[in-house]
Design brief:
There is one protein chain. By secondary structure, the protein is mainly alpha-helical. Helix 6 crosses helix 7 and helix 8 packs parallel to helix 11. It is globular, with a radius of gyration of 20 Å. The N and C termini lie far apart (48 Å).
Protein backbone atom coordinates (compact mmCIF):
# COMPACT_ATOMS: atom_id res chain seq x y z
CA UNK A 1 0.00 0.00 0.00
CA UNK A 2 2.99 2.32 0.44
CA UNK A 3 4.32 1.73 -3.07
CA UNK A 4 2.82 4.97 -4.51
CA UNK A 5 4.35 6.99 -1.68
CA UNK A 6 7.75 5.38 -2.24
CA UNK A 7 7.47 6.18 -5.96
CA UNK A 8 6.69 9.84 -5.29
CA UNK A 9 9.56 10.06 -2.81
CA UNK A 10 11.90 8.43 -5.33
CA UNK A 11 10.99 11.00 -7.97
CA UNK A 12 11.40 13.97 -5.60
CA UNK A 13 14.61 15.80 -6.49
CA UNK A 14 17.27 16.12 -3.82
CA UNK A 15 19.28 18.72 -5.71
CA UNK A 16 17.82 22.22 -5.91
CA UNK A 17 15.39 23.00 -8.73
CA UNK A 18 17.49 26.00 -9.75
CA UNK A 19 20.61 23.87 -10.07
CA UNK A 20 18.79 21.25 -12.16
CA UNK A 21 17.23 23.83 -14.48
CA UNK A 22 20.62 25.42 -14.99
CA UNK A 23 22.07 22.06 -15.98
CA UNK A 24 19.08 21.52 -18.27
CA UNK A 25 19.85 24.72 -20.21
CA UNK A 26 23.33 23.38 -20.92
CA UNK A 27 21.87 20.05 -22.05
CA UNK A 28 19.48 21.75 -24.47
CA UNK A 29 22.46 23.30 -26.27
CA UNK A 30 23.76 19.87 -27.25
CA UNK A 31 20.29 18.51 -28.01
CA UNK A 32 19.68 21.36 -30.47
CA UNK A 33 22.92 21.00 -32.42
CA UNK A 34 22.04 18.06 -34.73
CA UNK A 35 18.84 19.84 -35.76
CA UNK A 36 20.55 23.20 -36.23
CA UNK A 37 23.45 22.05 -38.43
CA UNK A 38 21.47 21.57 -41.69
CA UNK A 39 19.77 24.95 -41.27
CA UNK A 40 23.10 26.64 -40.50
CA UNK A 41 24.50 25.17 -43.71
CA UNK A 42 21.54 26.45 -45.72
CA UNK A 43 21.54 29.89 -44.10
CA UNK A 44 25.22 30.56 -44.77
CA UNK A 45 25.36 28.52 -48.01
CA UNK A 46 28.12 26.23 -46.76
CA UNK A 47 28.61 22.45 -46.72
CA UNK A 48 26.96 20.43 -43.97
CA UNK A 49 30.38 19.16 -42.92
CA UNK A 50 31.56 22.74 -42.46
CA UNK A 51 28.44 23.65 -40.50
CA UNK A 52 29.20 20.71 -38.24
CA UNK A 53 32.17 22.67 -36.90
CA UNK A 54 29.77 24.41 -34.54
CA UNK A 55 29.48 21.09 -32.72
CA UNK A 56 33.26 20.76 -32.53
CA UNK A 57 33.50 24.34 -31.25
CA UNK A 58 30.92 23.73 -28.53
CA UNK A 59 32.50 20.48 -27.36
CA UNK A 60 35.95 22.09 -27.36
CA UNK A 61 34.79 25.01 -25.23
CA UNK A 62 32.93 22.63 -22.93
CA UNK A 63 36.01 20.50 -22.37
CA UNK A 64 38.37 23.40 -21.77
CA UNK A 65 36.00 25.00 -19.27
CA UNK A 66 35.81 21.79 -17.27
CA UNK A 67 39.59 21.34 -17.21
CA UNK A 68 40.11 24.93 -16.03
CA UNK A 69 37.29 24.91 -13.47
CA UNK A 70 38.43 21.68 -11.87
CA UNK A 71 41.85 23.18 -11.15
CA UNK A 72 41.17 26.85 -10.41
CA UNK A 73 37.62 27.27 -9.18
CA UNK A 74 35.32 26.23 -6.36
CA UNK A 75 31.64 25.42 -7.07
CA UNK A 76 29.34 28.21 -5.93
CA UNK A 77 25.97 29.73 -6.77
CA UNK A 78 27.71 32.84 -8.09
CA UNK A 79 29.83 30.78 -10.46
CA UNK A 80 26.73 28.93 -11.63
CA UNK A 81 24.95 32.22 -12.37
CA UNK A 82 27.99 33.42 -14.28
CA UNK A 83 27.78 30.40 -16.56
CA UNK A 84 24.03 30.82 -17.10
CA UNK A 85 24.44 34.53 -17.81
CA UNK A 86 27.11 33.76 -20.39
CA UNK A 87 24.72 31.37 -22.12
CA UNK A 88 22.02 34.07 -22.27
CA UNK A 89 24.35 36.58 -23.91
CA UNK A 90 26.00 34.14 -26.31
CA UNK A 91 22.71 32.58 -27.43
CA UNK A 92 21.24 36.01 -28.20
CA UNK A 93 24.32 36.94 -30.23
CA UNK A 94 24.21 33.56 -31.99
CA UNK A 95 20.65 34.24 -33.12
CA UNK A 96 21.91 37.47 -34.74
CA UNK A 97 25.29 36.28 -36.07
CA UNK A 98 25.85 37.63 -39.62
CA UNK A 99 28.69 35.23 -40.55
CA UNK A 100 29.48 31.59 -39.93
CA UNK A 101 32.92 32.36 -38.50
CA UNK A 102 31.32 34.58 -35.87
CA UNK A 103 28.69 31.94 -35.14
CA UNK A 104 31.32 29.24 -34.64
CA UNK A 105 33.25 31.54 -32.30
CA UNK A 106 30.10 32.25 -30.32
CA UNK A 107 29.31 28.54 -30.05
CA UNK A 108 32.80 27.98 -28.61
CA UNK A 109 31.94 30.56 -25.95
CA UNK A 110 28.57 28.85 -25.41
CA UNK A 111 30.39 25.58 -24.87
CA UNK A 112 32.52 27.22 -22.19
CA UNK A 113 29.42 28.60 -20.46
CA UNK A 114 27.70 25.21 -20.61
CA UNK A 115 30.87 23.55 -19.35
CA UNK A 116 30.99 25.87 -16.36
CA UNK A 117 27.35 25.21 -15.50
CA UNK A 118 27.74 21.46 -15.89
CA UNK A 119 30.91 21.37 -13.81
CA UNK A 120 29.27 23.21 -10.93
CA UNK A 121 26.26 20.88 -11.04
CA UNK A 122 28.34 17.69 -11.01
CA UNK A 123 30.94 18.99 -8.55
CA UNK A 124 28.26 20.03 -6.11
CA UNK A 125 26.49 16.68 -6.24
CA UNK A 126 29.26 14.11 -6.70
CA UNK A 127 29.68 13.44 -2.98
CA UNK A 128 26.00 12.53 -2.40
CA UNK A 129 24.41 9.65 -4.31
CA UNK A 130 20.86 10.99 -4.49
CA UNK A 131 21.91 14.46 -5.64
CA UNK A 132 24.25 12.86 -8.17
CA UNK A 133 21.35 10.80 -9.53
CA UNK A 134 19.30 13.98 -9.96
CA UNK A 135 22.03 15.70 -11.94
CA UNK A 136 22.66 12.58 -14.02
CA UNK A 137 18.94 12.47 -14.88
CA UNK A 138 19.13 15.91 -16.50
CA UNK A 139 20.79 14.52 -19.64
CA UNK A 140 18.09 11.94 -20.44
CA UNK A 141 15.27 14.31 -19.45
CA UNK A 142 16.73 17.01 -21.69
CA UNK A 143 16.90 14.58 -24.60
CA UNK A 144 13.35 13.32 -24.10
CA UNK A 145 11.76 16.75 -23.69
CA UNK A 146 14.10 18.86 -25.78
CA UNK A 147 14.50 16.87 -28.99
CA UNK A 148 10.93 17.17 -30.31
CA UNK A 149 10.53 20.77 -29.16
CA UNK A 150 13.85 22.05 -30.49
CA UNK A 151 13.46 20.08 -33.71
CA UNK A 152 10.06 21.71 -34.26
CA UNK A 153 11.52 25.14 -33.54
CA UNK A 154 14.22 24.70 -36.16
CA UNK A 155 11.64 23.55 -38.67
CA UNK A 156 9.39 26.52 -37.89
CA UNK A 157 11.92 29.35 -37.64
CA UNK A 158 15.41 28.02 -38.27
CA UNK A 159 18.41 27.96 -35.98
CA UNK A 160 18.10 31.67 -35.15
CA UNK A 161 14.71 31.23 -33.52
CA UNK A 162 16.01 28.19 -31.67
CA UNK A 163 18.99 30.05 -30.21
CA UNK A 164 16.67 32.87 -29.15
CA UNK A 165 14.50 30.35 -27.31
CA UNK A 166 17.60 28.86 -25.66
CA UNK A 167 18.53 32.35 -24.47
CA UNK A 168 15.05 32.82 -23.00
CA UNK A 169 15.28 29.42 -21.28
CA UNK A 170 18.64 30.31 -19.75
CA UNK A 171 17.29 33.70 -18.63
CA UNK A 172 14.39 31.95 -16.88
CA UNK A 173 16.84 29.64 -15.11
CA UNK A 174 18.85 32.68 -14.05
CA UNK A 175 15.83 34.06 -12.20
CA UNK A 176 15.39 30.93 -10.07
CA UNK A 177 17.49 30.75 -6.87
CA UNK A 178 20.20 28.10 -6.93
CA UNK A 179 21.08 26.23 -3.75
CA UNK A 180 24.39 24.44 -3.51
CA UNK A 181 25.97 22.33 -0.80
CA UNK A 182 28.27 24.44 1.34
CA UNK A 183 31.86 23.77 0.22
CA UNK A 184 34.77 25.42 1.95
CA UNK A 185 37.21 27.03 -0.46
CA UNK A 186 40.57 25.24 -0.34
CA UNK A 187 43.59 27.21 0.81
CA UNK A 188 45.41 26.03 -2.30
CA UNK A 189 44.48 23.80 -5.19
CA UNK A 190 46.22 20.45 -5.19
CA UNK A 191 45.59 17.42 -7.34
CA UNK A 192 45.30 14.01 -5.76
CA UNK A 193 48.36 11.82 -6.40
CA UNK A 194 46.15 8.83 -7.23
CA UNK A 195 47.36 7.36 -10.52
CA UNK A 196 44.34 5.06 -10.56
CA UNK A 197 42.21 8.18 -11.06
CA UNK A 198 44.22 8.90 -14.20
CA UNK A 199 43.31 5.42 -15.44
CA UNK A 200 39.64 6.11 -14.73
CA UNK A 201 39.82 9.41 -16.63
CA UNK A 202 41.32 7.59 -19.59
CA UNK A 203 38.58 4.98 -19.35
CA UNK A 204 35.87 7.66 -19.48
CA UNK A 205 37.46 9.19 -22.57
CA UNK A 206 37.61 5.75 -24.19
CA UNK A 207 34.01 5.10 -23.14
CA UNK A 208 32.58 8.10 -24.98
CA UNK A 209 35.06 7.80 -27.87
CA UNK A 210 33.85 4.27 -28.64
CA UNK A 211 30.19 5.04 -28.04
CA UNK A 212 30.01 8.23 -30.10
CA UNK A 213 31.78 6.52 -33.01
CA UNK A 214 28.56 4.53 -33.46
CA UNK A 215 25.87 6.76 -31.92
CA UNK A 216 26.39 9.64 -34.34
CA UNK A 217 25.70 7.26 -37.23
CA UNK A 218 22.75 5.44 -35.62
CA UNK A 219 20.20 7.14 -37.87
CA UNK A 220 22.14 6.11 -40.95
CA UNK A 221 22.41 2.54 -39.64
CA UNK A 222 18.65 2.37 -39.05
CA UNK A 223 17.88 3.75 -42.47
CA UNK A 224 20.29 1.56 -44.41
CA UNK A 225 19.63 -1.68 -42.50
CA UNK A 226 15.89 -1.42 -41.89
CA UNK A 227 14.57 1.48 -43.99
CA UNK A 228 13.50 3.43 -40.89
CA UNK A 229 12.34 7.00 -41.42
CA UNK A 230 13.12 10.01 -39.21
CA UNK A 231 10.03 9.46 -37.02
CA UNK A 232 10.94 5.86 -36.19
CA UNK A 233 14.55 6.81 -35.49
CA UNK A 234 13.55 9.73 -33.25
CA UNK A 235 11.33 7.34 -31.28
CA UNK A 236 14.30 5.00 -30.86
CA UNK A 237 16.40 7.86 -29.49
CA UNK A 238 13.60 8.80 -27.10
CA UNK A 239 13.48 5.22 -25.82
CA UNK A 240 17.25 5.37 -25.35
CA UNK A 241 16.92 8.53 -23.27
CA UNK A 242 14.01 7.09 -21.26
CA UNK A 243 16.10 4.04 -20.39
CA UNK A 244 18.88 6.37 -19.25
CA UNK A 245 16.43 8.29 -17.07
CA UNK A 246 15.29 5.04 -15.43
CA UNK A 247 18.93 4.16 -14.74
CA UNK A 248 19.61 7.46 -12.99
CA UNK A 249 16.69 6.85 -10.64
CA UNK A 250 17.68 3.25 -9.80
CA UNK A 251 21.49 3.35 -9.45
CA UNK A 252 21.76 -0.20 -8.11
CA UNK A 253 24.51 0.13 -5.45
CA UNK A 254 25.77 -3.46 -5.53
CA UNK A 255 26.64 -3.60 -9.21
CA UNK A 256 30.00 -2.36 -10.45
CA UNK A 257 30.54 0.12 -13.27
CA UNK A 258 32.47 -2.45 -15.31
CA UNK A 259 29.37 -4.65 -15.58
CA UNK A 260 27.33 -1.83 -17.10
CA UNK A 261 30.12 -0.86 -19.47
CA UNK A 262 29.94 -4.47 -20.68
CA UNK A 263 26.19 -4.04 -21.23
CA UNK A 264 26.93 -0.96 -23.34
CA UNK A 265 29.49 -2.93 -25.38
CA UNK A 266 26.93 -5.64 -26.21
CA UNK A 267 24.26 -3.01 -26.97
CA UNK A 268 26.50 -1.01 -29.27
CA UNK A 269 27.32 -4.08 -31.33
CA UNK A 270 23.65 -5.13 -31.39
CA UNK A 271 22.39 -1.95 -33.04
CA UNK A 272 24.86 -2.32 -35.91
CA UNK A 273 23.53 -5.74 -36.95
CA UNK A 274 20.82 -6.04 -39.60
CA UNK A 275 19.05 -9.05 -38.08
CA UNK A 276 15.80 -7.36 -37.00
CA UNK A 277 14.59 -3.82 -36.09
CA UNK A 278 13.64 -5.09 -32.63
CA UNK A 279 17.33 -5.66 -31.90
CA UNK A 280 18.06 -2.08 -32.94
CA UNK A 281 15.57 -0.77 -30.39
CA UNK A 282 16.72 -3.25 -27.75
CA UNK A 283 20.32 -2.19 -28.28
CA UNK A 284 19.48 1.47 -27.77
CA UNK A 285 17.55 0.65 -24.60
CA UNK A 286 20.46 -1.33 -23.19
CA UNK A 287 22.87 1.41 -24.23
CA UNK A 288 20.96 4.20 -22.50
CA UNK A 289 20.44 2.16 -19.35
CA UNK A 290 24.01 0.89 -19.16
CA UNK A 291 25.59 4.27 -19.88
CA UNK A 292 23.78 6.07 -17.07
CA UNK A 293 24.35 3.19 -14.68
CA UNK A 294 28.10 3.26 -15.35
CA UNK A 295 29.04 6.95 -15.49
CA UNK A 296 27.85 8.04 -12.00
CA UNK A 297 29.59 5.02 -10.48
CA UNK A 298 32.90 5.91 -12.15
CA UNK A 299 32.52 9.51 -10.98
CA UNK A 300 32.07 8.30 -7.43
CA UNK A 301 35.20 6.17 -7.81
CA UNK A 302 37.05 9.33 -8.85
CA UNK A 303 35.73 11.23 -5.84
CA UNK A 304 36.87 8.46 -3.47
CA UNK A 305 40.51 9.06 -4.41
CA UNK A 306 40.37 12.85 -4.65
CA UNK A 307 41.47 15.43 -2.11
CA UNK A 308 38.06 17.07 -2.55
CA UNK A 309 34.90 15.73 -4.22
CA UNK A 310 34.96 18.31 -7.02
CA UNK A 311 38.64 17.89 -7.87
CA UNK A 312 38.40 15.45 -10.78
CA UNK A 313 34.84 16.17 -11.96
CA UNK A 314 36.04 18.77 -14.44
CA UNK A 315 38.65 16.41 -15.82
CA UNK A 316 36.03 13.69 -16.18
CA UNK A 317 33.59 15.94 -18.02
CA UNK A 318 36.38 17.21 -20.26
CA UNK A 319 37.60 13.71 -21.06
CA UNK A 320 34.10 12.58 -22.01
CA UNK A 321 33.64 15.70 -24.13
CA UNK A 322 36.87 15.12 -26.02
CA UNK A 323 35.85 11.48 -26.50
CA UNK A 324 32.56 12.59 -28.04
CA UNK A 325 34.43 14.92 -30.34
CA UNK A 326 36.82 12.22 -31.55
CA UNK A 327 34.30 9.39 -31.89
CA UNK A 328 32.68 10.54 -35.16
CA UNK A 329 36.14 10.88 -36.74
CA UNK A 330 37.05 7.39 -35.57
CA UNK A 331 33.90 5.86 -37.02
CA UNK A 332 33.69 7.87 -40.24
CA UNK A 333 35.67 5.52 -42.56
CA UNK A 334 33.67 2.41 -41.63
CA UNK A 335 30.34 4.24 -41.59
CA UNK A 336 31.02 5.78 -44.99
CA UNK A 337 31.81 2.34 -46.39
CA UNK A 338 28.62 0.91 -44.88
CA UNK A 339 30.63 -1.55 -42.77
CA UNK A 340 28.36 -1.14 -39.76
CA UNK A 341 29.04 -4.52 -38.16
CA UNK A 342 32.78 -3.84 -38.31
CA UNK A 343 32.12 -0.42 -36.79
CA UNK A 344 30.08 -1.95 -33.96
CA UNK A 345 32.68 -4.64 -33.38
CA UNK A 346 35.49 -2.08 -33.16
CA UNK A 347 33.51 0.05 -30.71
CA UNK A 348 32.60 -3.01 -28.62
CA UNK A 349 36.25 -4.04 -28.34
CA UNK A 350 37.19 -0.57 -27.14
CA UNK A 351 34.33 -0.63 -24.63
CA UNK A 352 35.42 -4.02 -23.28
CA UNK A 353 38.92 -2.59 -22.81
CA UNK A 354 37.35 0.35 -20.97
CA UNK A 355 35.42 -2.01 -18.71
CA UNK A 356 38.56 -4.00 -17.92
CA UNK A 357 40.37 -0.81 -16.93
CA UNK A 358 37.59 0.17 -14.54
CA UNK A 359 37.35 -3.36 -13.13
CA UNK A 360 41.11 -3.49 -12.62
CA UNK A 361 41.10 -0.21 -10.70
CA UNK A 362 38.22 -1.39 -8.54
CA UNK A 363 39.96 -4.64 -7.66
CA UNK A 364 43.32 -3.00 -7.00
CA UNK A 365 41.82 -0.42 -4.67
CA UNK A 366 40.17 -3.00 -2.45
CA UNK A 367 41.64 -2.71 1.05
CA UNK A 368 43.87 0.28 0.24
CA UNK A 369 43.75 3.69 1.93
CA UNK A 370 42.54 6.76 0.13
CA UNK A 371 45.28 9.19 -0.96
CA UNK A 372 43.86 11.87 1.34
CA UNK A 373 45.35 9.87 4.20
CA UNK A 374 48.88 10.12 2.79
CA UNK A 375 48.65 12.71 -0.04
CA UNK A 376 52.38 12.82 -0.59
CA UNK A 377 52.51 9.21 -1.85
CA UNK A 378 51.43 8.21 -5.37
CA UNK A 379 48.96 5.34 -5.19
CA UNK A 380 47.65 3.01 -7.84
Amino acid sequence: MYAPLRLVYGLRPHASIGLLLAALTATFMFVLTPFAIPDVAADFDIAVGTAGLISTAQVGGFGLANVFAGRRLTPSAGLLRTGIGALVVVDVLSALAPTFVLLASLRFAAGMGAGLVTWVAWADSVHERRRLADVAAVGPVGAIAGAPILGALVQAGGFRLSYAVLAATAAAALLIPQSLTAVAAPTRRRVSPSRSNLILLGALLLFTLAGSSVYIYSAQIAQDNFGMGPLAVSFAFSVNAAAGLAATRLQLPRTGAALWIGVVAVSVFTITTDVHPVLFYAGLVGWGFGFWMAVPKVLRMLAERSLSPDERVGDAQAGMAFGRAGGPVLGAPLATAGAFVALGGTAAILLVACGLLVFGVQRYRTGRDEPAVQPQVWRL
